[in-house]
What does this fold into?
Amino acid sequence: MSITYKKIRQIVGPLVFLKNKHDVHYGEIVKIRTEGQENRIGQVIRIDEEIIVIEVFEETKGISSDNSEIIFTGEPFKLKISNDMLGGVFNSLGQPIDIHTKKLLDSEIFTEIEQDITGIPINPFARQYPSNVIQTGISVIDGLFTLIRGQKLPIFSGQGMPHNKLAAQIVTQAKVLSEEPFLIIFCGIGIIQDDVIFFIEKFQKSGNIHNIISFINFADDPVIERLIIPNVALTTAEYFAFKKEMHVLVVLDDMTNYAEALRELSSAKEEIPSRKGYPGYLYSNFASIYERTGIIKGKKGSITQIPILTMPNDDISHPIPDTTGYITEGQLVLNRNLEKKGIYPPMEVLASISRLMKDAIGEKNTREDHADISSQLLASYSNALEVRDLISVVGEDSLNLEQKILLKFGNDFENKFLKQRFDENRDFSKTFSIAWEVLGNIPKNQLYRIHQEFIDKYYPKQV
Amino acid sequence: MMKTSNQIGHISVGYISAINGSLIDVKGIENHTRLHDLIKISNHNILGEVIQIYSEKVIVQCYENTSNLSLGEKVIDLEHPLSMELAPGLLGKIFDGIQRPLDDIYSQFKDNGFLKRGVELPPLSRKKKWHFIPKKHLNEKISGGDIIGIVQETSSIKHYILIPPKKFGTLTFIAEEGDYTIEDIIYKLKENGQENSFNMIQKWPVTKRRPFYKKEKATEPLITGIRVIDLLFPIAKGGTVAVPGGFGTGKTVIQQSLAKWCDADVIVFVGCGERGNEIADSLKDFEKLIDPRSGRPLLERVLIIANTSNMPVSAREASIFSGITIAEYYRDMGYDVALMADSTSRWAESLREISGLLEEMPAEEGYPAYLPSKLSSFYERAGVVQTLGTNNSEENREGSLTIIGSVSPPSGDFSEPVTATTKRFVQAFWALDARLAYAKHYPAINWLDSYSNYSEYISNWWNKKGISGDELELNWQECRNQVNEILSKENNLKNVIQLIGEENLPEDQQLELFIAKIIKEGFLIQNAFDNVDNYTDVDKLMEQIRIILLLYKEAKELLNQGIIIEEIKELKIIDDILRIGSSIPNNEISKIAKITDKLFDEIKALKHTHISMGEK
It folds into this structure.
């Protein structure tokens, strides 16, 4: 039984205030019907004996105090999910946005279920610690920041940098050594049309991917909807991962737009801001999205997340990347100087990390020398960068032999190991052999981070 | 809408009158309820805590998601504050912030691994029987803190069943040795003609500290096996330390290493607002790792409280106090307990979130003005204590509680409120440095910004250990001083190098730089994931630093004799010294003596060629 209100007391930004006259449920979904306009959806976010406050997901433009009906559904936000969604493109509310998707859903027998989109936390005790390596075919990721199934590994980028290209390359080349296929869920948050076209095209061209579901909130769609679309995408992901036992890889692009929507809503609610106007609950709110990743004991499926975010002014200490980095299991940071030097992927390796690789790599999964190689490459590259700084002060001529060696190593590292073509897919052994080739610049006795047995086995023979 | 409120027997009942996020207003109990009483929303089994009382309503903070609640729903005042259930069976468990058993929830609701709302299970098993050995006799006069009997809780930990604080009387009944559940009556006390029965369970409110006889001075180090800590920034048993660091600086790895290797008897690990996979990681390690003392899994002396970042914020706020209450309980048995809280910043943020919902006037960066008093009420519960209990030889127990709290300052800025406030209440500070982490220098503890006030308290302990070498009689304190001196000289020289280059420094300064580099690469850097390097015991620690300082002393001598620094740098033995961490296990430190011998041989050879060249 639904109850309808016909009078609105107050409208402030995305918030609508009603005089409380019935037994409303907290978090309940309401439909807003305005004369001559599309129906809108909202959610109850505050109740007391006088007032009900509703957050409207779409714009509140055109609503007046008496031209609209507010219909209480008595239900939380539920998403219809079915197997027929594969290949479809949907909006923030889970409705098809193109004709193809509409047809797809109409023509099939609907085996849908309804699911509340607010995620329930996974019991930490029920989590299976992720340990299956995903080969992305990109040397710098596989070698130094290995992606693990069930991990959340964001890309920290800046405007104009090739994060979309990198995400597309990861997604199209991603492969688990057991060869089980992925379902890709692409979630565009305030994303521009061109980027959507780029992604969909890349995904469709790839022979590796048969299953994609896209949820898109375009840059010109209502801002408030950006706050629900990740939950819609992740609810779908949980269904396919934990009910249908599939491996799901979710790309969230771009979380900066999400955070800005959150700030806008918070300011409309007149909340006390913390850093840079973002609400104090930014961390908990981000966590409610990022933590919907992982593997559950006794279930076959998994959810892996690659959130993309653009750092305002390339500032990694900005609240959005900073808060994200505290929740995600590492980060891949892109660097503008490397990009200017023509190096793709322009990965700032010293600021990047994959936290879950330590237990997943090694003899059984990748190769026994993997951990040592990655530690040595990073340590030596860090030294090489120090030498470069030194050159700017004292000039290249006054370097000693050790420093010259490091300089050569640094250049080789960037040009041979880091640099890679967009369509180049290197497997683990190829990545390791390039790594040893680059390490061959450094005398054996200075590879302090590599066990002697691996040096004996893999150090390139001098020509 | 139901709008009645009344008292049925003892139970006072009210109803919900407003909902705003995790806060609800309740009417009908405002005249009887006390601040911090627990309430229960009966239809959904949701617990909450009274945080403000007004004349016409009370404000309740719920420990779970409030969605789908509605006004008028029945609320029961449980008339007691959030309390921990203390009894055998705590060790090896994993609880959420309000002591719900996450392992039992998983095994009893197996259909999926999600945490459904309103699950109600007792924290500890009511069915499991424990073998109880009585230690007191009929008609003995006993009082709070006395040991009434012993239960072997796990193979390494005896659980002393204590008389609850403030209880006393004459023992009128005590159970015979045998197997009992924690609810069975095991003793009765008669006091002023009134007899009370007791089982093994004690309940203790989380925000109230457990009483003790008196506080003692901390004199013993907590050995962590992490070289930079044990030598440069030690912590005492019963001490407090903060570990601040931006993301990626390795806070969690340090916390996990400490939990795995430090020499406390009982570990309480509070995962507060952090990642779910990290909890899974710790749990997996604790199950897998064998405790060297008992030969059994480490988990048998560990207890985990997990309230991950996506679990309800108000239970996160409680989790820290839940953890410390359980830790104090084991301390009262006479154990050395270490509590790791990862991360106190998330806990402070939960205060901020709730304070924001209450529309309180914020202090710095939105944190409430009572942040300092809340933080101190946590850290001040650490310490070495003489426990309560009759003062005889058997029961004059000393226990300690060490707190290691990590702090996650936004953008690694140590001047932010939580880090700055925490600094006022802790005695040691391990500053994690993003630049070191970027250079893959782990543990990324910055030796210039970190400090420890415990070195004086514990230097006697090290001296008593009597670890000293033949060639260089440096004790622990002297090693510290030398290392600190070399590292600070290096820091001063850094700016000069930037201007003129290392090559152009005088030879003796180049030596300082070279030794500083060896100290960093071969001593301070330690690989937590290497099976040998992950734990350095005190003997190996001293040998390892000693050989570096020996090289330093000898090299200075060589420079005086006119040998140039480049020749010293090319000594083959230096590679061996740098690899000691990962190549020589703790039980094979005699190999370090062999390296020392080789060092002398090479130095002798170097001197020899120098002299013969001089003769030509």
Remarks:
- Chain A has a mean pLDDT of 89.
- Residues 370-458 of chain A form one domain.
- The longest strand of chain A covers residues 182-191.
